[in-house]
Amino acid sequence: MCNQDHSIESVSVADNEKFTYPVILIKGSLGNRCETGELKVQIDNYDCPVSKDVRFINEKRGQFKVLLRLKEGENRVTLTYCSRELELNLFFEESENPHWITPLYIICDGHDGCFQSDTAENSIENACAKITLGIQLVQSLYAEKMAEKWSSRKTFTIAGDCLPFRSSLPLQESKAMTDQQLWNFFAKEILQSELYTSEKQKFIGFISSTYYEGISDNDFSYENIKRRTTGNVALGGGGLALFGTGCLYTWPDRLDGIVPAFLNTTLVNRELMMDDSNYRYTYGGCFATTIGSVCHEMGHIFDLGHTKDGIMGSGLDHVNRVFTLITNTEDLPDRVIGRGGPTRKSLNSKLTQIKRPGEFLLKYQQQKESDVTYFADNCAVTLRFHKWFNYSPSSNDNNCDTRISFNFVTRIVTSVNSFLKLIELRDRVDGMLKVYWSFLETETDNFQVGDTIQLDGLTLFVIDSYGNILKQDL
């Protein structure tokens, strides 16, 4: 050790903080770099697997992000940099929320369950390990983004590790089905299975048999890649978010592999392996985009609609920036928000797109100053009161009769025995937000939608203080 006066500062978690999820992100800064300095992490005085990114801006200042897994109960976490030591007591207690998410690995009849990969590590067990870790990472991301908005790390509850689910759908039939048809089939099948035990349960499923046939004509546009792929779904709503496994080969299966996976600049062999990286062409880009897609589609099962920007819009590709210290900016193609969710424009569209003056400079500056991954304000309000994020024994599950209604004549939204917290009007076709009203600082049980707003073709969305929801086509 040296004699320099090191410091560990601006740590994002507090001593004695409690968490209801196991994989947590710790962010902070380091002072006074030295030649032999290395950030080390221990839990209860033992070295633990972590995934970290540590970078120095100059000779004096540095930043770090560390992902680690807490065990249930008390965790004495020690951060050490050369001669400086910071100790934090962190507590992990399983959430008591009876609303939960069950992750599934869906195997069609006639498929061996091995996902498409460029290595031999593509077994059912390996897939379930990747999916379990990936959903825990999404759980952590939701918590971080909620903390940025509300100073409270609310997130959803996962029922347990990913489970293999043997479907009755024949493999050959599945190859001819659209994304919506696959969603409809699996949603019905899961609800009729013994896995479904409560209306307070939602599912996230990954199809093992996603298959990319390869490209030999050098047309690597996203549209052509999608045409050459079967079963690579990304669709969420109701009680199921459904995904393909076309890029599961880029996902890590161990916590200490998360940051290296995001930073992996290995180029995808697009002639043989699917590339869903929004034209970054790298393993890390595929991991970031597909995890971002999971964040987005899970948002739909939590009743979020589409927004122009943010996770529920065009801003789902930069999830890697949440967990790493990447500072390079990426001018990726804008996404088109449609009925099936955000899709990538072709590369040619990107090159010919006319950008507003100063738009690129503004985008560059925003990316330099933040991780550019967030929930739009209206989405954050919904999650704040949603039952899958906000439960306590004093909630209205057992104690009062609440109702939300809309009068088409008076155009008044009314709640009984609760207060309105958010009202949205969304496009009925693509779910895009048109206008919203939030009531965080007031207690109101009625609101009149102005008669200057044309309601035809819109969907009304309302959430109250107990997390009750009204969705109604107008």
Could you please describe the fold and organization of this structure?
- Strand 24 and strand 25 (469-473) form a beta hairpin.
- The chain is 22% helix and 29% strand.
- By secondary structure, the protein is α+β, with helices and mostly antiparallel strands.
- Helix 1 packs across helix 6 (283-301) and helix 1 crosses helix 10 (377-385).
- The model is unreliable at 345-368 (pLDDT under 50).
- It folds into 3 domains: 7-92, Immunoglobulins (Immunoglobulin-like), CATH 2.60.40.10; 100-330, no CATH class; 402-473.
Topology readout:
Blueprint lengths: L6 E3 L8 E2 L3 E9 L7 E5 L2 E2 L2 E7 L4 E9 L3 E9 L2 E9 L7 E10 L14 H27 L12 E8 H5 L3 H13 L9 E7 L3 E2 L9 H6 L1 E2 L3 E4 L2 E4 L14 H5 L20 H19 L18 H4 L11 E4 L2 E4 L2 H6 L6 H11 L7 H9 L17 E5 L4 E5 L3 E8 L5 E6 L7 E3 L9 E7 L4 E5 L1
Parallel strand pairs: 2-9, 10-11, 10-12, 12-16
Antiparallel strand pairs: 1-3, 3-7, 4-5, 4-8, 6-7, 8-9, 13-14, 15-16, 17-18, 19-20, 20-23, 21-22, 21-24, 24-25
Shape: globular
Number of helices: 10
The gyration radius over C-alpha positions equals: 23 Å
Question: What's the mean pLDDT score?
Answer: 89
Q: Uncertain spans, ≥5 residues at pLDDT below 50?
A: 345-368
- What structural class is derived from the secondary structure elements? alpha+beta
